[in-house]
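Researcher: Good morning. I'm working through a list of sequences from a screen, and I'd like to move beyond sequence-only analysis. For each chain I'm collecting a predicted structure so we can compare shapes side by side. This is the next one on the list. No need for commentary yet; just the structure.
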Amino acid sequence: MRTRVHFALATLSVVALASAAMAGDGPTVGGQLEVNYTYNFNKPTTRNNTFLFNNTDGEFTVNLGEINVKKAATNKAAGYTFRVMTGRVQKSIDMAYNTDHVLEAYGTTLHEMGGKTLTFDFGQFLSHVGYETPDVGSGQFFSKSFCYQLLQPLVHAGVRGSVPLGENNTLMGVITNRFDGVNDVANRDLGFGFQFVHKSSEAVSWTLNAHTARENLGTAAAPVNRDTSVANLIYSNKLNDTLSVAVDATSRTGKDATNRSYNATGVAGYLSKKLVSGNTLSVRGEYLSQNNATSPILPLYPADPTRKPSMTSITAAYEIGSSEGSRTIIEFRMDNAGGAMFPASTAGTVKKQQTSISLSRVFKF
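Model: Good morning. Structure tokens for this chain:
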């Protein structure tokens, strides 16, 4: 009840600022609502689809309800971004990080130095690592890739600064509280990361991301601080007005709670085609693997926990042209693992494959 009250008060505060958005240099107020229904053909007794946000099988769900207030920074005035949320995205992120209905909340300042404009953000922000974000729109898919779900950090608290290096390159540095999440009560070590973006042309870009930190894999009373690092490379190409491709490759390394070294890698490819009808057809394929079976970054196989885990997934999404401010996405997804791991229709049993279909409606204002 308390978190609902907090969210209601935050929402009212955001709505109260809407009148200020009428001014030309004032903040902008917006938001979105994502509603979906996911059906898993395995009919899992656990009702768990093994996905990140649309994880419950066979029911309509508010995946994300969000209201945001944003104001761009200028050389004379600071800017800010504030996003409050509810729904399954909020529940998943709050369960892991205790963010209390806040997706992002940071201030932005600009500084002139040596003829270049430096940008600094202070607060809580989404991770710079990876192609996808919690929002629908990354590659035109509703469900999130296993690469995003298992290998990449989601949200940080700290400071980040970016500087242009010529016309085609941008460098950003990041200092955070930990590898993933906003706080770590049993670890005072900071995390460090960077992002380097190279635009070969207006259509083609290369992005190199990295982040490393020590994070507590235990509890506040019994901390187990371990090194965790991720390297991520993204290639994006808008081939023409109707066709675009992207590749997201990730390598995550570190030590688990038992001090064993691990390496988990994944690659996801995205293809999106806008049809003559105005609708969009997109396909995503991915593959993940882990070099051992002792460090559970990837899920282990219940019947064969000594086997090195691997996962593949193919997703096809069809977006139907709708009214302005709304989208309809029909998504068909097939997941496969090297061993049985996906919940099945009989209690306590698992399968190597799972197939699901999702229908989602997305509204933005």
